[in-house]
Amino acid sequence: MVENTESESRKLLGRLRETMASDVAGQARLDKITQLIADSMGTEVCSIYLFRDEETLELCATEGLNRESVHQTRMRVGEGLVGRVARTGKVINTADAPNARGFRYMPETGEERYSSFLGIPVQRLGEMLGVLVVQSKDRRNYSADAVYALEVVAMVIAEMTELGAFVGEGSAMSPLHQQSLLLKGTTAQEGAAEGHIWLHEPRVVVTNPIADDPQRELQRLNEAVDELRVGVDRMLEDTNGGDKEQAQVLETYRMFANSKGWMRRMEEDIARGLSAEAAVEKEQSLARGRMAQVQDAYLRERLSDLDDLSNRLLRILTGQGRDTGAELPADPILVARNIGPAELLEYGRKLKGIILEEGSVGSHAAIVARALAIPLVVHVGRITTEGLNGDHVLVDGDQGVVHLRPDDPVVSAFRDKIAMQAQAQERYTSIREKPAITRDGQRVHLMMNAGLMADLPSLVNSGAEGVGLFRTELQFLVRNKMPRRSELVALYQRVLEAAGGKRVVFRTLDIGSDKVLPYMKPTDEPNPAMGWRAIRVGLDKPGVMRMQLQALIRAANGGPLTVMFPFVAQFEEYRQAREEVNKTIEREKRLGHVLPSRIEIGAMLETPSLGFAPLKFFEEVDFLSIGGNDLKQFFFAADRENERVRKRYDTLNVSFLSFIERIVERCDISGTPLSFCGEDAGRPIEAVCLAAMGIRYLSMRPASIGPVKSLLMRVDLGEMRKIIADARHRGEQSVRPAVMQYLREI
Ligand code: PEP
Ligand code: MG
Q1: Shortest CA distance to 142 belongs to which of 100, 99, 94, 102?
Q2: Does residue 364 carry a catalytic annotation?
Q3: Per residue in 129-172, pLDDT tens?
Q4: Domain 6-162 belongs to what architecture?
Q5: What is the number of the ligand 1 atom nearest to the C-alpha of 627?
Q6: CATH domain 181-202+328-421 topology
Q7: Most exposed residue of 180, 237, 368, 686, measured as fewest CB within 10 angstroms of its CB?
Q8: Exposed, middle or buried by CB within 10 Å (0-12, 13-18, 19+), for 675?
Q9: CATH (one of 3.90.76.10, 2.40.100.20, 3.30.565.10, 1.10.274.10) for 214-318
Q10: Of 175, 172, 162, which is closest to residue 130 (Cα–Cα)?
């Protein structure tokens, strides 16, 4: 066979470029490419399979297989050798294809005659576009050099596909980035939004994947890398040893920028005929492919650093800066692979919606989006590769789906939905100042959950009676270094000022589990949700907790102060925490600071164990707040972050409601004030059932106060209690059907 030396592959790429420049278009272009490859590789067959839809590959061009099978032969991802290459993103190189694992013979193609098979993934920036295959009758193992050459060609085909080079006459391919698409994801913040895409990282378009002067390309690459290095060094100097974490990231950048392996591979690609930017993008694609496979969080971070560095290099090479000249649309929907909470806060309320390709429901970005009440859908595969700046998009945060470039009927149905939600919001405004009193005269107090400064205006807008849960860790999470005590004092003071005398319940740091501070050494725990978190950290390493308590006492400035400790699982933990507060008060007194007029010290009931604590505990604690999110996950042993099991157990499950009722009874006996502050407090049906169980304080997202109040004002809690008791008596698993029936009838 003709071995592909560097110059061979350069020749092939040169011919490919001629084909691109000639006026053959669409299908003819694809056909020509397969001919060229087969000819230059000295093989009988060369075929290109491209994705028809997410699941299906289609034979789009072939030299050597039956022509009639083009656009007829299809296979699912994972099916046969071609499907396996597409699924794994890995090369298959075998001399004896018919006996290779997973071989599936497609009779219409006539491929049974061919023994050897080499399949190369066609992918661009981690997105699988198709598979390039060469086959021959003789039994041969293609050399590493041939594999490498074909990888370069596959990269060029990927670029061409992205640029729409195969769309046109006779081609069954539809242009990319024009179809309307329904992309499924996971809800991280409910709500509906319509707008236009704003890419957090605008993609760089490589228009010249093939180059004819390797020397010049090498020079361009070297110059760009030099510029990159200088830039990184300057950034490192700028951080001036101040921000350790940022400096660490930059050090990693520097390591890559000086990495011999990274440079060598790109130089080799250029020698084979790629342009400098195509060589960078090829490396980036490989890194993204690896990123998808790597489990280890640390390694993934490093690969993502490399991805970022490649982006910088591409911007230098193409001159397409971060500032692409595009303007933030009036109704921006942010699209990103992932985003940190601080970056998200920079955009702030300008955003109408957020779509993340990765992300997770429990991520910090999700916490921020929730606080800002911006609809957020995460895990939306392909959004960063499919969506372009300015594309029309609908974010359905309720269903967890995204309509990209939607058709008219979808748009009008969606607008109806938004209008209905707006109408409902208006209705809620009219009851904003009214107390939540049920038909049978029961008063329920509605408070809001908060954690960011951005939440504070909601205190007035939502009609909340106070802040029932201030998650102090959010302020720690959105920074990249530990806040100083003086900063905390100023911050808590602003919160108390904004509250204007309304009660604010500050929860001390709840870190650990999914909330890992970026500047703290991560502890590798097999099960962090049940690990060293919240008050456990606070008691074992009291430094930060003491600083926080001091800051809170100073911020109260002689006024009342309410503090609660998260994740208390037994009496003794509460006693120790209370002791810490007392010691801090003593210290503050000695230092001459003014003390709060009154301090209430509460505990969060988030583990079933605390519900069964001695009655003495209920008597000693100033108040209790049920953290329903955690309590439910431990009650049912179902991880709140695991989409598979999270929704399996209903909050209205009889066992759970009975447990809540039991806690209410115990609090009644001891006279302990009780509230509920998990997400369920903000879901109207769940909220009225909790009220029926006897909960009189509910704390929720500000946006939920209207809907919850509206429903509370319509129900009779006495009747609901009876309905719940009857359903329980009948042995039903959940009271939901009975409650829904009642609500339909009122
Ligand atoms: C809860 O667990 O219900 C709660 C309010 O705390 P968080 O969601 O912050 O864990
Ligand atoms: Mg909790």
Answers
A1: 94
A2: yes
A3: 899 999 999 998 888 888 888 888 888 888 888 777 777 655 55
A4: 2-Layer Sandwich (3.30)
A5: 3
A6: Glucose Oxidase; domain 1 (3.50.30)
A7: 237
A8: buried
A9: 1.10.274.10
A10: 162
